[in-house]
Specification:
The chain is an alpha/beta fold. It has 19 helices and 40 strands. The protein folds into four domains: 25-182 and 200-314, Alpha-Beta Barrel (TIM Barrel); 332-416 and 559-670, Glycoside hydrolase family 3 C-terminal domain (Rossmann fold, 3-Layer(aba) Sandwich); 422-556, Galactose-binding domain-like (Jelly Rolls); 725-840, Sandwich (Immunoglobulin-like). A six-stranded mixed beta sheet has the order 1-2-3-4-6-9. A six-stranded mixed beta sheet has the order 10-27-26-23-11-12, covered by helices on one side. A hairpin with a 2-residue loop joins β38 (819-828) and β39. It comes from Pelagicoccus mobilis. GO terms for molecular function: beta-glucosidase activity.
């Protein structure tokens, strides 16, 4: 229990536990090292390794690996290029937004254990996850890697994940510390967060996973925080993490996130990582900085001691050999399916269309490309390489066998040319301009003249060809792609000024004489699995210089328009429409290195869904994303399922759930707003490329919706089931609580339906009498329970003084105010019991 000073009402600072024997072993090794040897522990000797030191009993390198939900395929030691080995497949679990939707801490712990066994089998020591940044904007390209908008949900799940992972002798690495809630200009954006919001929201999941979970390593974000890069940030790394929380492990840079040797060392960074050939600050320059007195040697001693402490914890010192672990086992694959099934959220089932009845399903119309896209290989540092991946379409085919006919129409449902999907792109940013993401995209060489002459002024990489160019310059865009299918491809370029387009050096579009804004197009016959080089040459007009490239693959050359969909739907007894995001860059895509331009679904999908629902209101709409998406047709859709980037077994899990083999139990880990402007970052105009002020303070997600009385489209914590549950009013063990005491809350939950199922009980605390403005309600505890039909179980929650506390900025401490508090228990942040009132004195 937290200790309380009865006079001041302040709580003592939380402290991480230190393994005394590991610390002793680390100190013994440190005492034997020269300065040069100490420094050799503080930077990678390869892209994912710290060198072995046999002279002190460290016979093997310390291996890092991405990512939060799988063990990433091997990477070249000197660059970020794939190593292209044959034996680096791993089980790909659902992403962390899916895990968060399970609201299941036991599942999260097993998630960590499973990932740890896979990492051990691949010889990895530090797994770069979990990610615990919060969802502040729906546009963040990496929301799918994180665990929603609430710090308690993210913190409890992260703590369980860390316990599971580190039980396998694999260190967790919490990321991205801190204030990295957007990908837009992530390597330079300056984040300004007031101290209350910082402590109560953005640092809290880190604190919980370190103090309660014992996480051994932390990764800095690329961004600046209050003017200083996170990798140089004394306040975050030294004052809070190491001194206040007593964190004994090491802080590692995100790959390429260090900018200065002295600032990094004095700012609390312990290990520099980057592409192997690009590591530069914590090698010889650090030795030089010590020798000339810019960095005290005792600072280097502490940095090296932290690395050695983690190695001692993992058994890397003294010749210990871990058990081999396991990879791609039937048990791991079954677990991947279990996580996927527990994460699926039934958002609407107004007419009880679900579950589908197998005996009544003879002809299914499946619509939308998301039904048959594999996502495990997307996501850059979160990419996976599974031995197989079951898409929803394949899952339906496997589940139904020959008992039903399935017609599939992938779309598009509008005449559009789209950007190149990342999965078909072979060109990699070898200059690593995005600090370790190894992004795929167009290489853009810019010349100082309008005729592609002179010495190039820059060579950069862009995810997409959709860019405005300065006048009196010219550029050559080039990219290698692998054609996904045989047939005729359509290419379109919208351009201001002259343009030429080449495929493997052959000229296909010659508009170099253009003196206006126009659209040029061509077609070309390409062969499946053949790699082609596409090149665009562009010279902008004096007053504007936009350039936008798009293509259509053969299967998309002739789109299926809404009226045709309606016609095709009439002969089907079941219609399933799959829409949503994909992993990668661009419109309706999610991925590292960029944010989405909007919450919109793929072009043409909204119109198609609207037309289809008018003709077939029994259509089941299935959205797929790791972030909120817009749904302008929602009032017409009685049946809606949300599905995540659900790993290699996701399609099998979804098919089983649609037909009632599994009962949906997922709950939203974030609010889905009606529009982007209903979220604080965008309502207040505090989202941008240079400096972002979190002006909304502690009011994000459901806290903002409650405060502003803006109803979300779907509330935080919402999710339906095929059965029904009743929750009894909460019973409190006391209604007047002295400072320093815990509060016990009891309730009962009953499965009142005719099917086994799981419900998540959510406990919220409110306070209106504090010295500062607090949210109307804050999640403080949750519990997932599985019940048979008619079964009742008792649930008990315990709140500690910390649960009642807020951060007192003047005192720089957690404070508990006397006064009245309310307790609510329910199924979501908007579906709650009548509040029970307590008085704390």
């Amino acid at each position: 229990m937290d200790t309380v000073n009865d006079t001041t009402r302040f709580l003592s600072a939380p402290k991480a536990k230190i393994d005394a024997s590991a610390l002793v072993q680390a100190k013994e090794v440190l005492a034997k090292l020269s300065l040069e040897e100490k420094v050799s522990f503080l930077a990678g000797n390869g892209t994912m390794t710290i060198a072995a030191h046999p002279q002190v009993g460290q016979d093997d390198e310390l291996w890092f690996s991405d990512g939060p939900h799988t063990v990433r395929p091997e990477i070249d030691r000197a660059t970020f290029n794939p190593a292209n080995t044959d034996d680096d497949h791993s089980t790909v679990l659902p992403t962390l937004s899916a895990l968060a939707a399970s609201w299941n801490t036991e599942l999260a712990e097993e998630f960590g254990r499973t990932l740890g066994r896979e990492a051990r089998h691949r010889g990895k020591d530090v797994q770069l996850g979990p990610g615990v940044n919060l969802l502040r904007t729906p546009l963040n390209g990496r929301n799918y890697e994180y665990m929603g908008e609430d710090p308690i949900l993210a913190g409890r799940l992260a703590t369980a994940y860390v316990h599971g992972l580190q039980s396998q002798n694999v260190a967790a690495c919490l990321k991205h510390f801190a204030g990295n809630e957007q990908e837009l200009e992530r390597t330079s954006v300056d984040t300004e967060i007031d101290e209350r919001a910082l402590r109560e929201l953005y640092l809290l999941p880190f604190e919980m996973a370190i103090v309660e979970g014992g996480a051994l390593t932390v990764m800095n974000g690329y961004n600046r925080f209050r003017g200083e890069f996170c990798s140089h940030n004394d306040y975050l790394n030294n004052q809070v993490l190491k001194r206040e929380w007593n964190f004994p492990g090491f802080v590692v840079s995100d790959w390429g996130g260090v900018h200065d040797t002295v600032a990094g060392a004095l700012g609390g960074l312990d290990v520099e990582m980057h592409a192997g050939d690009a590591i530069q600050y914590f090698r010889e320059p650090l030795i030089d900085a010590v020798n000339i007195g810019e960095v005290p040697e005792k600072t280097v001693d502490n940095m090296a001691l932290r690395v050695l402490y983690v190695m001692a914890q993992l058994g890397k010192l003294g010749g210990y050999r871990r058990a081999k672990g396991a990879r791609n086992t039937p048990e791991h694959q079954a677990f991947a399916r279990k996580v996927a099934a527990e994460s699926i959220v039934l958002l609407k089932n107004d007419s009880n269309r679900l579950p589908l009845k197998r005996k009544d399903t003879k002809r299914i119309l499946v619509l939308g490309s998301n039904a048959n896209i594999k996502h495990s290989g997307g996501g850059w540092s979160a990419e996976g390489k599974p031995p197989y991946e079951i898409t929803p379409l394949q899952g339906l085919r496997d589940y139904l066998g020959n008992t039903a006919e399935i017609e599939y129409i992938p779309g598009p449902f509008k005449e559009i040319h789209s950007q190149l999907p990342e999965s078909y792109i072979q060109t990699i940013d070898t200059n690593d301009l995005d600090h370790g993401a190894a992004q795929k995209g167009w290489q853009v060489v810019t010349f100082p003249t309008s005729e592609l002459t002179g010495i190039p002024v820059s060579t950069v990489y862009h995810h997409e060809c959709n860019h405005a160019q300065a006048p009196n310059t010219s550029s050559r865009w080039s990219i290698e792609i692998t054609a996904p299918e045989d047939g005729v491809y359509s290419f379109q370029i919208e351009h201001d000024g002259p343009v030429c387009f080449y495929i493997d050096g052959d000229l296909y579009i010659d508009a170099w004489s253009s003196e206006s804004s126009q659209t040029s197009s061509c077609t070309a016959q390409l062969s499946s699995k053949v790699t082609y080089t596409l090149t665009i040459e562009h010279s902008p007009l004096e007053n504007k210089g936009n350039l936008k490239f798009g293509w259509r693959t053969p299967s998309c050359l002739h789109p299926t328009l809404p009226e045709e969909l309606v016609k095709r739907s009439q002969s089907a007894d079941t219609v399933l429409f799959f829409t949503g995001n994909q992993l990668g860059a661009g419109h309706a895509h999610e991925g590292e290195g960029s944010d989405r331009p909007s919450m919109a679904l793929p072009e043409g999908d909204d119109e198609a869904i609207t037309s289809l629902l008018a003709a077939r209101p029994d259509t089941v709409v299935i959205t797929q994303s790791g972030s909120p998406v817009s749904m302008p047709w929602i009032k017409s859709a009685p049946t809606l399922v949300h599905y995540w980037f659900s790993g290699m077994e996701g399609g099998a899990a979804l098919a089983g759930l649609l037909f009632g083999e599994a009962n949906p139990s997922g709950k939203l880990p974030f609010s889905i707003p009606r529009q982007l402007e209903d979220t604080p970052a965008h309502a207040l105009g505090n989202y941008g490329p240079e400096r972002v002020n979190y002006q909304e303070g502690v009011f994000i997600g459901y806290r903002w919706h409650d405060k502003k009385k803006i109803p979300p489209l779907f509330p935080f914590g919402h999710g339906l089931s095929y059965t029904t549950f009743s929750i009894s009013p909460p019973q409190l063990d006391k209604t007047e609580i002295p400072h320093g005491s815990n509060l016990t809350i009891r309730t009962k939950v009953t499965n009142t339906g005719n099917r086994a199922g799981s419900e998540v009980l959510q406990l919220y605390l409110g306070s209106t009498e504090a010295a500062v403005q607090r949210p109307i309600r804050e999640l403080k505890a949750f519990r997932k329970v599985e019940l048979q039909p008619g079964e009742t179980t008792n649930i008990e929650f315990t709140l500690t003084p910390r649960d009642f506390a807020y951060w007192d900025v003047e005192a720089n401490a957690w404070r508990v105010d006397a006064g009245t508090y309310s307790i609510e228990i329910g199924k979501s942040s908007s579906d709650l019991s009548v509040p029970k009132t307590i008085y704390l004195y």
